[in-house]
Amino acid sequence: MFAIRKPASTLAAVLAAAGVFFMAPHAQGAERVRVPAGAFTPLYNPEGTAATLAVAAFYLDRTPVTKAAFEAFVRAVPRWRKSAAPAVFRDGNYLKDWAGDETYSASASAGAQPVVNVSWFAARAYCKWAGGRLPTTAEWEYAALAGYRERDARREPGYRDDVLRWYVTPAEATLPAVGRGRPNAYGLYDLHTLVWEWVEDFNTAVSTGDNRSDSDSERNLFCGGAAGMSTDRSDYAAYMRFAMRSSLLPSYTGQNVGFRCAADGE
Amino acid sequence: MHRFYALMLALLFMAVAAPRTAGAHDEHHHHHGAAATTASESDDLDAEASAPPGGSVYWLDGTWMTDAGAPVRLRDFEGKPVVLTLLYTSCKQVCPILVEDVKRIQQAVTENERAATAFVVVTIDPERDTPAALAAFKKKTPAAKAWTFLNGSPDQVLELASVLGVRYRKAGAEFVHSNKITVLDAKGEIAHQAVGLRAPVADTIKAIRKVLDLQ
Q1: What does the longest C-alpha to C-alpha distance in chain A come to?
Q2: What is the reported pLDDT for A204?
């Protein structure tokens, strides 16, 4: 099912009216699902307290953004081509694995792989172009909390094992296509597999002392208060994600870092 | 206008006819004013003659409002060294120290150097630090008389902070944020950053002078 997006302009409305013939196939992952509003206790909370976060309803891409989709973007927006993107917005490995400025690969089948080697700036630019934005950390973690059947995977012990198994599985030489695994309870794929995913507010992990070796901050960071003390092994995956995000720079590109887009819910 | 729509429709037909297209055309970004909206759209910054160097902050081309209510782009400061600081005015503990740090830099340069340097302060709290609030803050901070305070959208602030490596996060009514004073060179690239509060000014002054020498 397609998420309904508000037309950005009269032009878009005109095109949208005639537009049913011009819609992309689902396979490119442009489809979004609606995640209803809710509240949750994050598995890992840097504040060290069992704080509850409220999340308003939002839309989230079913899968990570694919190479094929990103190719369409760089064709439409020359600024973001491999040879044109300014250094301030990406590091030297931007689209490193791409065959050319407008081609991800000689092989069209690679199109269904998640796009990687994209910076936070590039991911944001794509999402804006695609009529959305990056998800916030809270949105992403909330969506990722779901198991195959339950909205809270802590009620599904088998699900946690699957998640942790992925963390110990060596990365494959070629990234698999998106959307091949089992979707979670919201119909979302690949949240715990394939790639790390950029979020809008990855940058907000600030240690509370100016001095990074401030002992109070370290205690909060590595012991994690209530969350860290529990024996729930899902916390480990959440901690890994937190650590990963905190270590990233916005211009960083990595062969295991991709993204998916979100949009405000209605 | 009708010809414009016809052109877009024609282009869309052509685009769909090609293999491997995305359906995102109808969700395209807003067309900023002018008519150039084809796939080969380029704005000022892409024109080779005037493009800033790849590492320049001036690639961030959004519009900000000054404390005087005037619209500016960051690129308008091109050509001078810029002493750039991110803070917010209702911050009671840390930001006053940061303001003092900027004052010390201002005092350490000569009068001519001061005139040739832009002192810019960007608020990380644009909701409360409206241009009027920034003007009020400036009024009760005499040393800030020649500074430019900027208010932008949360999105713009996030991007600028990210480029500068300034982290911030809302925590209730306050913000937790890192402290940095950046010197941009004449083309908007980062020449120097003083990290943390009460950083010694010597290196910052050296960086400003280096930029001025190259003018």
Answers
A1: 61
A2: 72
